[in-house]
Design goal:
The chain is α+β, with helices and mostly antiparallel strands. It has a single domain, classed as Alpha-Beta Plaits, CATH 3.30.70. Helix content is about 45%, strand content about 10%. Helix 1 crosses helix 2. The longest helix has 19 residues. The chain is globular. It starts with 10 loop residues before the first helix and ends in a 6-residue tail after the last helix. This is Putative transposase. Pfam families: Y1_Tnp. GO terms for molecular function: DNA binding; transposase activity. InterPro entries: Transposase_17, Transposase_17_sf.
């Protein structure tokens, strides 16, 4: 979720965010199975081994994407405020050990993207 839930992402932003998130995921040797987002948040379906600390993965995803997006899209820096961060400090993570991956992908694919 963006800081203060501001609606700042366009399709161009979301496309670049996906590229950044995939690169960070690859660095952590995790699999970003699905990505989608709206104008103020993103959905990620990540397959990661138990040796990876979820908090470290999320902090890197948010930190790297915030820094790169603000550098590449100066208009987003206006929404960074005092902490120089694009994202809010919170996140949601759920475990889906029994659900088929196809159902999860379908859910994420159906999330609306801004026009």
């Amino acid at each position: 979720m963006t800081k203060f839930r501001y609606r700042v992402f366009t399709d161009t932003h979301l496309t670049r965010l996906e590229e950044i998130m995939r690169a960070v995921s690859a660095y952590f040797e995790t699999g970003l199975a699905e990505f989608n987002g709206e104008n103020n948040h993103v959905h990620l379906l990540v397959n990661f081994p138990p040796k990876i600390a979820l908090s470290k993965l999320v902090n890197s995803l948010k930190g790297v994407s915030s820094r790169r997006m603000r550098q590449e899209f100066p208009e987003l820096a206006a929404h960074s405020y005092r902490a120089n961060t694009l994202w809010s400090g919170s996140y949601f993570a759920g475990s889906v050990g029994g659900a088929p991956i196809s159902v999860l992908r379908q859910y994420i694919e159906q999330q609306n993207r801004p026009l």
